[in-house]
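Readers outside the structure-tokenisation community will struggle with the description of the input data as it stands. I therefore recommend that a typical entry be quoted early in the introduction. An entry of this sort, consisting of the sequence and the corresponding backbone structure tokens, reads as follows:
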Amino acid sequence: MNTFVPGDRITGLMYEKIHRLPTEVQLELSDYIEFLLKKYQANKPKKPSFGCMKGTVTWMSDDFNALPA
């Protein structure tokens, strides 16, 4: 069954399928889901926070803000 199912109906369909599996397989599936969550959360790029580069610039030219002649 490889059909597209929109919205929250996917959750219901997955619940029905998981419910039919033996308990041991449900536990294995739970472990696999945890693995996938960790994998995709680790690859998610983090948004830089304000001030995250503080202290990284140790030297700047004296004429950095000088207007061009």
